[in-house]
Amino acid sequence: MAVRRRDGIHIEVPAGGGDGADGGGADGPGGAGRTFVADASSAVGDVNVVSHAHADHTFSRTPETVVCSAATAALVEARTGKSVPAYREGTDEVTLYPSGHVVGSRAALVEVDGRDRADGADRRYLYTGDFSVRDRLYLEGFDPVNADVLVMETTYGEPDYRFPAEDELQAAIRDWLADAPDRPLFLFGYSLGRAQKLQRLASQATNRRLVVHDAVRTVNDAVESATDLSFPAETLAADGGDPLAGDEVVVLPTHLSRTDWVTDLVERHDGLKAGFSGWAVDESFRYRGGYDVTFPLTDHCDFDELVATVRAVDPEVVYTHHGFDEAFADHLATRYGYDARPLLGDQTRLDDF
Question: Which member of 82, 164, 202, 264 lies 3.0 to 4.6 Å from 169 by CB, making a disulfide possible if both were Cys?
Fold first, then answer.
Protein backbone atom coordinates (compact mmCIF):
# COMPACT_ATOMS: atom_id res chain seq x y z
CA MET A 1 0.00 0.00 0.00
CA ALA A 2 1.18 3.51 -0.71
CA VAL A 3 -0.22 6.98 -0.08
CA ARG A 4 1.13 9.78 -2.25
CA ARG A 5 0.42 13.44 -2.80
CA ARG A 6 0.85 14.35 -6.44
CA ASP A 7 -2.05 15.75 -8.42
CA GLY A 8 -4.50 15.10 -5.61
CA ILE A 9 -4.14 12.38 -2.99
CA HIS A 10 -3.46 8.86 -4.30
CA ILE A 11 -4.11 5.68 -2.34
CA GLU A 12 -2.57 2.81 -4.28
CA VAL A 13 -3.55 -0.81 -3.65
CA PRO A 14 -1.09 -3.31 -5.16
CA ALA A 15 -2.32 -6.49 -6.76
CA GLY A 16 -1.47 -10.07 -6.06
CA GLY A 17 -1.32 -9.75 -2.29
CA GLY A 18 1.76 -7.53 -2.34
CA ASP A 19 2.35 -4.84 0.27
CA GLY A 20 3.87 -2.26 -2.09
CA ALA A 21 7.28 -2.44 -0.42
CA ASP A 22 8.90 -4.25 -3.36
CA GLY A 23 8.44 -1.27 -5.63
CA GLY A 24 5.70 -3.04 -7.57
CA GLY A 25 3.30 -0.20 -6.77
CA ALA A 26 -0.20 -0.38 -8.15
CA ASP A 27 0.94 -2.74 -10.91
CA GLY A 28 2.73 -5.39 -8.89
CA PRO A 29 3.64 -8.91 -10.02
CA GLY A 30 0.12 -10.19 -9.43
CA GLY A 31 -1.41 -7.95 -12.11
CA ALA A 32 -3.06 -4.54 -12.22
CA GLY A 33 -3.88 -3.03 -8.84
CA ARG A 34 -6.33 -0.34 -7.77
CA THR A 35 -5.76 3.38 -7.35
CA PHE A 36 -8.08 5.73 -5.49
CA VAL A 37 -7.53 9.40 -6.38
CA ALA A 38 -9.04 12.22 -4.35
CA ASP A 39 -9.38 15.90 -5.30
CA ALA A 40 -7.17 15.87 -8.38
CA SER A 41 -7.30 18.38 -11.21
CA SER A 42 -6.50 15.90 -14.00
CA ALA A 43 -5.03 12.68 -12.54
CA VAL A 44 -7.45 9.78 -12.93
CA GLY A 45 -7.62 6.60 -10.89
CA ASP A 46 -9.87 3.58 -10.83
CA VAL A 47 -12.06 5.47 -8.34
CA ASN A 48 -12.05 9.29 -8.23
CA VAL A 49 -13.33 11.14 -5.19
CA VAL A 50 -14.37 14.80 -5.26
CA SER A 51 -14.68 15.87 -1.64
CA HIS A 52 -16.39 19.22 -2.35
CA ALA A 53 -16.95 21.84 -5.04
CA HIS A 54 -14.20 24.38 -4.33
CA ALA A 55 -12.19 24.94 -7.50
CA ASP A 56 -8.93 23.54 -6.12
CA HIS A 57 -10.61 20.21 -5.38
CA THR A 58 -12.41 19.59 -8.68
CA PHE A 59 -11.37 18.09 -12.01
CA SER A 60 -10.45 20.19 -15.03
CA ARG A 61 -11.80 17.25 -17.02
CA THR A 62 -14.34 14.90 -15.52
CA PRO A 63 -13.34 11.20 -15.35
CA GLU A 64 -15.87 8.49 -16.06
CA THR A 65 -16.16 7.31 -12.46
CA VAL A 66 -16.63 10.00 -9.81
CA VAL A 67 -17.65 9.49 -6.19
CA CYS A 68 -19.18 12.60 -4.62
CA SER A 69 -22.40 13.88 -3.10
CA ALA A 70 -25.34 14.97 -5.24
CA ALA A 71 -24.94 18.52 -3.93
CA THR A 72 -21.27 18.60 -4.92
CA ALA A 73 -22.13 17.39 -8.43
CA ALA A 74 -24.73 20.15 -8.77
CA LEU A 75 -22.36 22.81 -7.45
CA VAL A 76 -19.51 21.72 -9.73
CA GLU A 77 -21.80 22.01 -12.73
CA ALA A 78 -23.09 25.43 -11.63
CA ARG A 79 -19.62 26.83 -10.97
CA THR A 80 -17.65 25.28 -13.87
CA GLY A 81 -20.21 24.35 -16.49
CA LYS A 82 -18.87 20.76 -16.44
CA SER A 83 -21.46 18.11 -15.73
CA VAL A 84 -20.74 15.08 -13.55
CA PRO A 85 -23.19 12.65 -15.15
CA ALA A 86 -21.76 9.38 -13.82
CA TYR A 87 -21.20 10.34 -10.20
CA ARG A 88 -22.00 7.89 -7.44
CA GLU A 89 -22.43 8.59 -3.74
CA GLY A 90 -20.36 5.58 -2.76
CA THR A 91 -19.04 2.20 -3.94
CA ASP A 92 -18.40 -1.17 -2.33
CA GLU A 93 -14.99 0.18 -1.29
CA VAL A 94 -15.71 3.87 -0.63
CA THR A 95 -18.16 5.29 1.90
CA LEU A 96 -18.79 9.04 2.09
CA TYR A 97 -19.41 10.93 5.33
CA PRO A 98 -20.46 14.59 5.72
CA SER A 99 -17.26 16.53 6.44
CA GLY A 100 -18.85 19.77 7.70
CA HIS A 101 -16.81 22.01 5.38
CA VAL A 102 -19.38 23.35 2.90
CA VAL A 103 -22.70 22.19 1.46
CA GLY A 104 -22.19 18.75 -0.05
CA SER A 105 -18.66 18.23 1.30
CA ARG A 106 -17.70 14.66 2.14
CA ALA A 107 -14.88 12.71 3.75
CA ALA A 108 -14.13 9.34 2.16
CA LEU A 109 -13.47 6.04 3.93
CA VAL A 110 -11.66 3.58 1.66
CA GLU A 111 -11.86 -0.02 2.87
CA VAL A 112 -9.26 -2.38 1.43
CA ASP A 113 -9.85 -6.13 1.55
CA GLY A 114 -7.06 -8.03 3.29
CA ARG A 115 -6.73 -10.34 0.31
CA ASP A 116 -4.88 -7.48 -1.41
CA ARG A 117 -2.21 -7.46 1.30
CA ALA A 118 0.67 -9.78 2.16
CA ASP A 119 -0.36 -9.90 5.84
CA GLY A 120 -4.02 -10.60 5.01
CA ALA A 121 -5.26 -7.72 7.16
CA ASP A 122 -8.09 -5.41 6.10
CA ARG A 123 -7.24 -1.70 6.13
CA ARG A 124 -9.40 1.38 6.48
CA TYR A 125 -8.15 4.64 4.97
CA LEU A 126 -9.91 7.86 5.94
CA TYR A 127 -9.42 10.88 3.69
CA THR A 128 -10.98 13.92 5.36
CA GLY A 129 -10.83 16.42 2.51
CA ASP A 130 -11.36 19.89 3.96
CA PHE A 131 -13.39 19.51 7.13
CA SER A 132 -14.80 21.11 10.25
CA VAL A 133 -16.14 19.38 13.35
CA ARG A 134 -18.25 22.41 14.36
CA ASP A 135 -22.00 22.61 13.85
CA ARG A 136 -22.45 25.92 12.02
CA LEU A 137 -25.86 27.38 11.17
CA TYR A 138 -27.26 24.95 8.56
CA LEU A 139 -24.21 22.58 8.54
CA GLU A 140 -23.46 19.71 10.89
CA GLY A 141 -19.82 19.15 11.79
CA PHE A 142 -17.76 16.11 10.82
CA ASP A 143 -18.19 13.07 13.06
CA PRO A 144 -14.88 11.12 12.92
CA VAL A 145 -14.87 7.39 12.17
CA ASN A 146 -12.21 4.86 13.10
CA ALA A 147 -9.51 4.13 10.53
CA ASP A 148 -6.07 2.52 10.33
CA VAL A 149 -4.68 5.33 8.21
CA LEU A 150 -5.78 8.96 8.39
CA VAL A 151 -5.06 11.42 5.57
CA MET A 152 -6.04 14.87 6.79
CA GLU A 153 -5.81 18.54 5.86
CA THR A 154 -4.02 20.65 8.45
CA THR A 155 -4.70 24.21 7.30
CA TYR A 156 -4.57 25.58 10.85
CA GLY A 157 -2.18 23.03 12.30
CA GLU A 158 -0.30 25.32 14.69
CA PRO A 159 -1.26 26.22 18.28
CA ASP A 160 -1.65 29.93 17.40
CA TYR A 161 -4.81 29.02 15.51
CA ARG A 162 -7.37 28.50 18.24
CA PHE A 163 -10.79 30.00 17.50
CA PRO A 164 -13.59 31.14 19.82
CA ALA A 165 -16.49 28.81 20.51
CA GLU A 166 -18.88 28.89 17.56
CA ASP A 167 -21.85 30.32 19.46
CA GLU A 168 -19.67 33.13 20.87
CA LEU A 169 -18.21 33.89 17.45
CA GLN A 170 -21.57 34.04 15.72
CA ALA A 171 -22.98 36.22 18.51
CA ALA A 172 -20.09 38.66 18.09
CA ILE A 173 -20.70 38.86 14.34
CA ARG A 174 -24.44 39.41 14.77
CA ASP A 175 -23.79 42.10 17.40
CA TRP A 176 -21.44 43.93 15.05
CA LEU A 177 -23.95 43.74 12.19
CA ALA A 178 -26.81 44.95 14.41
CA ASP A 179 -24.86 47.80 15.99
CA ALA A 180 -23.02 49.05 12.89
CA PRO A 181 -23.84 52.63 11.80
CA ASP A 182 -26.14 53.38 8.86
CA ARG A 183 -23.45 52.83 6.27
CA PRO A 184 -23.15 49.99 3.76
CA LEU A 185 -21.46 46.92 5.23
CA PHE A 186 -19.26 44.97 2.82
CA LEU A 187 -18.71 41.38 3.99
CA PHE A 188 -16.05 39.25 2.32
CA GLY A 189 -16.00 35.45 2.27
CA TYR A 190 -15.59 32.57 -0.19
CA SER A 191 -18.46 32.35 -2.71
CA LEU A 192 -19.16 28.75 -1.68
CA GLY A 193 -19.27 28.39 2.08
CA ARG A 194 -18.70 31.53 4.03
CA ALA A 195 -20.78 33.77 1.75
CA GLN A 196 -23.92 31.74 2.49
CA LYS A 197 -23.22 31.77 6.22
CA LEU A 198 -22.71 35.53 6.14
CA GLN A 199 -26.08 35.96 4.43
CA ARG A 200 -27.73 33.85 7.11
CA LEU A 201 -26.05 35.78 9.93
CA ALA A 202 -26.93 39.12 8.34
CA SER A 203 -30.58 38.08 8.02
CA GLN A 204 -30.63 37.09 11.68
CA ALA A 205 -29.01 40.32 12.87
CA THR A 206 -30.63 43.07 10.82
CA ASN A 207 -33.48 43.96 8.46
CA ARG A 208 -31.17 45.77 6.09
CA ARG A 209 -31.42 45.08 2.38
CA LEU A 210 -29.12 42.18 1.47
CA VAL A 211 -27.13 42.29 -1.79
CA VAL A 212 -24.71 39.68 -3.14
CA HIS A 213 -22.17 39.55 -5.93
CA ASP A 214 -22.99 37.61 -9.13
CA ALA A 215 -20.57 34.82 -8.18
CA VAL A 216 -22.30 34.41 -4.82
CA ARG A 217 -25.71 34.45 -6.51
CA THR A 218 -24.60 31.59 -8.80
CA VAL A 219 -23.65 29.50 -5.78
CA ASN A 220 -26.84 30.47 -3.92
CA ASP A 221 -28.91 29.23 -6.85
CA ALA A 222 -27.00 25.94 -7.03
CA VAL A 223 -27.29 25.34 -3.27
CA GLU A 224 -31.01 26.09 -3.39
CA SER A 225 -31.50 23.65 -6.28
CA ALA A 226 -29.66 20.85 -4.45
CA THR A 227 -31.01 21.40 -0.92
CA ASP A 228 -33.95 22.84 0.98
CA LEU A 229 -31.89 25.92 1.94
CA SER A 230 -32.88 29.40 0.78
CA PHE A 231 -30.76 32.54 0.42
CA PRO A 232 -32.96 35.43 -0.72
CA ALA A 233 -30.85 38.40 -1.74
CA GLU A 234 -30.61 40.93 -4.54
CA THR A 235 -27.72 40.83 -6.99
CA LEU A 236 -24.87 43.28 -7.39
CA ALA A 237 -23.68 43.36 -10.99
CA ALA A 238 -20.21 41.94 -11.54
CA ASP A 239 -19.23 44.97 -13.64
CA GLY A 240 -19.34 47.17 -10.55
CA GLY A 241 -22.71 48.76 -11.15
CA ASP A 242 -23.96 50.84 -8.24
CA PRO A 243 -27.51 49.96 -7.14
CA LEU A 244 -26.83 50.84 -3.51
CA ALA A 245 -29.01 53.21 -1.52
CA GLY A 246 -26.57 53.60 1.32
CA ASP A 247 -27.29 51.15 4.16
CA GLU A 248 -27.17 47.68 2.55
CA VAL A 249 -25.29 44.59 3.62
CA VAL A 250 -23.23 43.50 0.61
CA VAL A 251 -21.64 40.02 0.46
CA LEU A 252 -18.73 39.60 -1.94
CA PRO A 253 -16.01 36.99 -2.68
CA THR A 254 -12.84 37.44 -0.65
CA HIS A 255 -10.58 37.92 -3.66
CA LEU A 256 -12.41 41.16 -4.59
CA SER A 257 -11.58 42.97 -1.36
CA ARG A 258 -8.77 45.03 -2.92
CA THR A 259 -10.13 45.47 -6.46
CA ASP A 260 -10.51 49.01 -7.76
CA TRP A 261 -14.25 48.87 -8.37
CA VAL A 262 -14.97 47.54 -4.88
CA THR A 263 -12.67 50.13 -3.32
CA ASP A 264 -14.44 52.87 -5.29
CA LEU A 265 -17.86 51.55 -4.24
CA VAL A 266 -16.90 51.41 -0.57
CA GLU A 267 -15.42 54.91 -0.64
CA ARG A 268 -18.38 56.36 -2.55
CA HIS A 269 -20.80 55.19 0.15
CA ASP A 270 -18.47 55.55 3.15
CA GLY A 271 -18.87 51.82 3.75
CA LEU A 272 -17.23 49.47 6.22
CA LYS A 273 -15.37 46.33 5.15
CA ALA A 274 -15.36 43.14 7.21
CA GLY A 275 -13.22 40.07 6.48
CA PHE A 276 -14.02 36.54 7.64
CA SER A 277 -11.38 33.81 7.82
CA GLY A 278 -9.47 31.68 10.27
CA TRP A 279 -6.44 33.72 9.26
CA ALA A 280 -8.07 36.65 11.06
CA VAL A 281 -6.25 35.59 14.22
CA ASP A 282 -3.24 37.22 12.52
CA GLU A 283 -3.39 41.02 12.63
CA SER A 284 -1.81 41.09 9.16
CA PHE A 285 -4.99 39.61 7.66
CA ARG A 286 -6.84 42.84 8.42
CA TYR A 287 -4.30 44.95 6.58
CA ARG A 288 -3.89 42.59 3.63
CA GLY A 289 -7.59 42.85 2.85
CA GLY A 290 -7.97 46.50 3.80
CA TYR A 291 -10.67 45.54 6.32
CA ASP A 292 -12.11 47.70 9.08
CA VAL A 293 -12.85 44.64 11.19
CA THR A 294 -12.19 40.90 10.95
CA PHE A 295 -13.64 37.74 12.50
CA PRO A 296 -12.14 34.20 12.59
CA LEU A 297 -15.17 32.61 10.93
CA THR A 298 -13.90 29.56 9.07
CA ASP A 299 -14.95 26.30 7.44
CA HIS A 300 -11.89 24.47 8.79
CA CYS A 301 -10.87 23.02 12.17
CA ASP A 302 -8.69 24.96 14.55
CA PHE A 303 -5.56 23.39 16.06
CA ASP A 304 -7.29 21.77 19.03
CA GLU A 305 -10.05 20.36 16.82
CA LEU A 306 -7.44 18.80 14.49
CA VAL A 307 -5.79 17.10 17.47
CA ALA A 308 -9.16 15.90 18.79
CA THR A 309 -10.01 14.45 15.38
CA VAL A 310 -6.81 12.41 15.26
CA ARG A 311 -7.44 11.04 18.75
CA ALA A 312 -11.04 10.15 17.85
CA VAL A 313 -10.01 8.32 14.65
CA ASP A 314 -7.12 6.64 16.52
CA PRO A 315 -5.14 5.63 13.42
CA GLU A 316 -1.88 3.72 13.18
CA VAL A 317 -0.50 6.24 10.69
CA VAL A 318 -1.39 9.90 10.05
CA TYR A 319 -0.55 11.72 6.84
CA THR A 320 -0.91 15.51 6.91
CA HIS A 321 -1.18 17.92 3.98
CA HIS A 322 -1.75 21.63 3.36
CA GLY A 323 -1.19 24.45 5.81
CA PHE A 324 1.10 23.61 8.72
CA ASP A 325 1.47 19.97 7.69
CA GLU A 326 5.04 19.45 8.90
CA ALA A 327 4.55 21.24 12.21
CA PHE A 328 1.34 19.36 12.96
CA ALA A 329 2.84 15.97 12.09
CA ASP A 330 5.77 16.74 14.38
CA HIS A 331 3.37 17.71 17.18
CA LEU A 332 1.45 14.43 16.82
CA ALA A 333 4.68 12.43 16.88
CA THR A 334 6.38 14.17 19.81
CA ARG A 335 3.34 14.90 21.99
CA TYR A 336 1.19 11.81 21.36
CA GLY A 337 3.55 9.25 19.83
CA TYR A 338 1.72 8.86 16.54
CA ASP A 339 3.48 7.71 13.38
CA ALA A 340 2.72 11.02 11.64
CA ARG A 341 4.23 12.24 8.38
CA PRO A 342 3.61 15.25 6.12
CA LEU A 343 2.58 14.41 2.57
CA LEU A 344 4.94 16.63 0.64
CA GLY A 345 4.12 17.44 -2.97
CA ASP A 346 5.57 15.26 -5.77
CA GLN A 347 7.17 12.75 -3.45
CA THR A 348 7.69 9.34 -4.96
CA ARG A 349 6.44 6.97 -2.29
CA LEU A 350 5.28 6.56 1.29
CA ASP A 351 4.61 2.96 2.23
CA ASP A 352 2.18 2.61 5.09
CA PHE A 353 2.89 -0.84 6.47
Answer: 164
